[in-house]
Amino acid sequence: MTPKTYKAAIFRGVGKVEVVDLPYPQCGDDEAIVRNVLTGICGSDIFAFQKHGPESRIWIDEEFGHEAISEVVALGKNVTGLEVGDRVFVNQGKAMRDMRRMSATGGFSNYLRIPQCEAGHSLLKIDNDLPLRTAVLFEPFVIGTRGVKVLDPQPGDSAIVFGAGIIGLTSAIMLHWYGCKKVMVVDLSDFRLENARKFGFSTCNPSTEDLKAKALAEFSSVQSHFGERCAARLYVDAVGVKSVIESFSMLAPRNGAISIVGVHKQPAPIDWVQVSFSNWHIHGCGDGETEDLLPDILAMMRARKDELSFLVTHEFPVERISEALELAANAQAAQKVCISF
């Protein structure tokens, strides 16, 4: 029996989220209705809650959230390739036929209507037997995988990931999945670095350890035009702060490559003489359609299955979403915070 209304979180501006009752949607012939089950809180949600701005792509007086794992509860007669009960990911931008909603598909609402629903485009099927706390990490793994694949990791490569938040850890996990023999994770949060160590990654907290000395000890050193450098070839910036670019410039060897995944809110100068003479490669992280990355991510999740679930450290009902957003910003106490329906 379908409900008459459902709960939806509406973003009202900095520090303001209102949970309201909305009418239960009707399913048209070309549409689907999904029930959101568990939705992760993204850094863009936190940024909007703390500061807001158009770069968050979250809009005042609208539904938001985009890291939902959902269940199909109704299908129009023209929709093929899906069944009621399927677990799915609501594919950002494409699901709502509105790229403006890339970061605001309505993941913090209990139900969603999917217009012009197409399996494999609007909704991506996720294995029903994956642990829910593993499945909900799918979208962060999309971001991490984009940031990693652009670096073209090769078996035997070594890498350093700056940031032990969920994007840093998904990047590190995918680097290992693609064959990197050694991965170091760098962060200021001992809580999050401990989680990185559970995956077998080496770690460094630059506030208490000498980053260059530890990197050279872990990966060995090579000589460059600019002195002694770390032999690790690949780097991921999952933080988006100036100090990461400075650390890359200090460590990277000739032909070193960095993927900028973290969003820099302030300029981060780099020495272009070193870029030129060292032949460094600097990449963004926006390449790769979500549906094209799905097979690699699901293969990794099937292989690691229960090993990933512990990264979800907290679940809150939607009525406590403001509390959840505040906790999600605390790097010393939380890894991944989710809204559970």
Q: What features would you describe in this structure?
A:
The protein is α/β, with parallel strands linked by helices and 341 residues long. The chain has 2 domains: 5-137 and 308-340, Quinone Oxidoreductase, Chain A, domain 1; 140-283, NAD(P)-binding Rossmann-like Domain (Rossmann fold), CATH 3.40.50. It contains 10 helices and 18 strands. The protein has helices at residues 43-50, 132-135, 138-149, 166-177, 190-198, 211-219, 242-251, 272-278, 290-304, 321-328; strands spanning 5-13, 16-23, 32-40, 62-63, 67-75, 87-90, 111-114, 123-125, 158-162, 182-186, 202-204, 221-224, 227-230, 234-237, 257-260, 281-283, 312-317, 336-340. The strands form 4 sheets. Strands 3, 5, 6, 7, 8, 17 and 18 form a 7-stranded mixed beta sheet that branches. A 6-stranded parallel beta sheet has the order 11-10-9-14-15-16, sandwiched between helices. β15 (257-260), α8 (272-278) and β16 (281-283) form a beta-alpha-beta unit. α3 (138-149) packs across α4 (166-177) and α3 crosses α9 (290-304). It starts with a strand and ends with a strand.
